[in-house]
Amino acid sequence: MLLRHVASTLVLSSALLLTLPATAAEPAADAPPESTPANTPVQPVDIDGAAANDADSDAGATSTLPLEDIQALAQVFERIKQSYVDDVDDRTLLRDAMRGMLEGLDPHSNYLDEDAFRMLHEMTEGAFGGIGIEVGQENNRLMVISPIDDTPASKAGLQPRDLIIEIDGKSTDGMSLEEAVGMMRGDPGTEIKLTLAREGEDAPIKVTLKRDNIQTNSVSSRLLSPGYGYLRISQFQENTGEETRKAIASLKQEAGDQGLSGVILDLRNNPGGLLDGAVSVADLFIDSGLVVYTKGRLADADMQFEAHADTALPDTPMVVLINGGSASAAEIVAGALQDHHRAVVLGTESFGKGSVQSVMPLDDTTGIKLTTALYYTPGGRSIQAEGIEPDVTVQRGRLELEQNGFEIREANLRGHLQNANGEQEQEQTPLPDSPIATDDYQLGEALNLLRGINVFQQAGLRRHSTSETPEAAAANDGQKEGDDAPETTSP
């Protein structure tokens, strides 16, 4: 009887997984879930040049369960009921069995009980009580993917790829991702103690954080210097695309008549979020072609997302900043802009989470999160376990400026020859400092790269305004702007 009960339960569960529609696609726990847009799936680009094989999906749906393994599962169930030191009810055992099946697949598939399912909806709304951290598992170790901006985790100095080895004195060895996230969540104002292992540090790092109400603002912006804008996206939410458009309009207004000469899009330590948000942001900078596409076993997992002609910054040079904390949706944006040659990607290799998780409700209070597809960049690159390789690699570091000393130049030498256009009295001014590069070396290098791009793109000879006569200036302007300027050829 028990064998038939377990077998029928598993068969019903299998049928349920195959028939329920995916409602959301979501990255690792503790980040806003990625939602699959409710658009009609189109035929995906097939990297291998072959059509998708629906027969494989049909065969998987009708395959029979192995009888010997079902019998073994029933025996384990019965042994636990009879011999385990504590009494365990049937519901707990069956839920743990479902949890084990899903967590054995990959680090991002898991069973969502009542608490996890509720937290998932809270994260979608962008507000929850916790420390503001995106976590995942690597080789069964709890690892920080990235801290969220302006949260207790970021203020305490947590870094991508930190290993969390203890939570409030309890070892995370063998702890499920769901359990770890549940322990780190809590009421605002309560304290939590973490023990971290960090590469390059000999001893564990102990930090005490105070939980807060995490309300994430996904977009911030400012001018770094006249004409050069900075856009920071901390994660992708439902309205991130519209917020980014408004931030660009604000930067243009702040830049004034000079306009924007370059924009830096900072996706460092961005754990991802909603797929819709990533597509809408990439669409702001790309005027045509693919943004991203997904491929999975089922037909409804195969989707393509195209850019629209309307763009917010059609010709402005761009640099995208990424690092090891840039994951999922952030990698989609960076990969799309890189493949379309719309921006230079600078920093270090991204995290490499290129899988789609679909959230499938089992009832009103529980569900499962199942990996159903992989992301591909417009050029056909899989992000999964590879990440985005930057065009220009710049490691995180600190810049130490040398003190300016007195420099002797030609003009300081006694009896020096005069300039042909007449010598003007000039005071030696100190070199400008570099506060951006000093505080954030990668950001400083991105700004320098944008300035270099603009210098390289400037055409024609440089003219000194004080040394040219008005007649010569008028003649030159006439040749530059007049329709009847004579043609010249270069040898």
Describe this structure in words.
This protein has 491 residues and is α+β, with helices and mostly antiparallel strands. It folds into 2 domains: 22-41 and 91-126 and 217-400 and 435-458, 2-enoyl-CoA Hydratase, Chain A, domain 1 (Alpha-Beta Complex); 130-215, PDZ domain (Pdz3 Domain), CATH 2.30.42.10. The chain contains 13 helices and 19 strands. It has helices spanning 2-19, 54-62, 67-83, 90-103, 114-124, 152-155, 177-184, 240-255, 275-283, 329-339, 435-439, 441-457, 470-481; strands spanning 110-112, 127-130, 133-138, 141-147, 163-167, 170-171, 191-197, 205-210, 212-215, 219-225, 228-233, 262-266, 290-296, 303-306, 318-322, 344-347, 355-361, 367-376, 392-393. The protein has a 6-stranded mixed β-sheet with strand order 10-11-12-15-16-19, sandwiched between helices. Strands 1, 13, 14, 17 and 18 form a 5-stranded antiparallel β-sheet that branches. Strand 3 (133-138) and strand 4 (141-147) form a beta hairpin. The longest helix has 18 residues, at 2-19. The chain starts with a helix and ends in a 10-residue tail after the last helix.
